Amino acid sequence: MVHLVDDQFAASVDCVYPAEGLRKFLQHYFTPDFFKGKSVLDVGCRTGEMVAVLTDFGARASGVDLSEGCIVSAASRFPSLADRLHVADVRDLAGVPDGSFDLVLCVGVMGYLPRQDWMRALKELARVCRDNGEILVLFQKPKPLLVQAIVKTINLVPLQFYLRVCCPLGATILAPCSLWFLGEPISRSVIRYRIMISLRGLEFGYPQQLAAYRVPTPNCAISSEKTTESFRIAKERWTELEHSL
Ligand SMILES: C[S@@+](CC[C@H](N)C(=O)[O-])C[C@H]1O[C@@H](n2cnc3c(N)ncnc32)[C@H](O)[C@@H]1O
């Protein structure tokens, strides 16, 4: 499978999820007071909205993303947070010291890694999490073989053609029908982004050893119980989990 993640996401910085959906996401897992004074790392922060919402909730929030274009966009959108936003790869968070965060979020990122890299990424999330901290990580649900075959076929289309022609064309066709199809009007940039993230470079499934840590996923702007699996892992249980990985 093709993994041109950096280019792929830098091309979509005009799509911004409303803060309300991100608040709904966080409040599904945590009480409103949970974040006050906590250090939180959002891994795969894209355009920085989650870092901004976490900051509004009283957290000392930081974000990292593999895409330099996304980090530049996030920093210009939220200049007061710019020094907390950095380019980094979840598989090697080399600049982040061990045990630096109370909570480590990794939302919508694992599906874009080759599955042989999942363990390495999980170990990095655990490494940067404090001993009594927590990790919240989401994976794509397993999909039927037909869906996997469609995604693999679409990955044969050259990335630039896919980004510049297929996604805008799909969005132009679907946007006027979004009220009818999806029950609400959705802008062309959001549909273009959704086509891109759901059909390109995706791995489905999750490491079976995580099953015991599964929690329900909220249905909101960035996630859905239908398509995503959430895992909330207390760092103190990490050692026992790591042995089984
Ligand atoms: C689908 S977006 C999710 C963004 C945000 N977390 C959300 O849920 O809306 C995936 C993000 O993960 C980033 N990403 C992909 N691979 C990554 C990696 N190896 N390390 C860090 N970030 C990565 C992409 O650049 C992109 O910004």
Strand content: 15-25%
Low-confidence stretches: 1-5
CATH architecture field of the largest domain: 3-Layer(aba) Sandwich
Q: In terms of quaternary structure, what is this?
A: single chain
CATH class of the largest domain: Alpha Beta
Structural class: alpha/beta
Q: Roughly how much helix do the residues carry, as a percent range?
A: 25-40%
Unique bound compounds: S-adenosylmethionine
User: What form results from the Cα inertia axes?
Assistant: globular
Order of strands in the sheet with the most strands? 3-2-1-4-5-7-6
CATH superfamily of the largest domain: Vaccinia Virus protein VP39
End-to-end separation in angstroms reads 23 Å
Rounded Rg: 18 Å
**Beta strands, count:** 7
In CATH, the topology of the largest domain is named Rossmann fold
Domain module count: 2
Largest sheet: 7 strands, mixed
Written account of the structure:
The chain is an alpha/beta fold and 245 residues long. It has 2 domains: 4-142 and 204-244, Rossmann fold, CATH 3.40.50; 145-199, no CATH class. The protein has helices at residues 5-10, 19-29, 49-56, 68-77, 118-127, 145-154, 159-174, 178-182, 188-199, 238-244; strands at 39-43, 60-65, 85-87, 101-106, 129-140, 214-215, 228-234. Strands 3-2-1-4-5-7-6 form a 7-stranded mixed sheet. α2 crosses α3 (49-56) and α7 packs across α9 (188-199). The longest helix has 16 residues, at 159-174. The chain is globular, with a radius of gyration of 18 Å. Residues 1-5 have low confidence and may be disordered. S-adenosylmethionine binds next to α1.
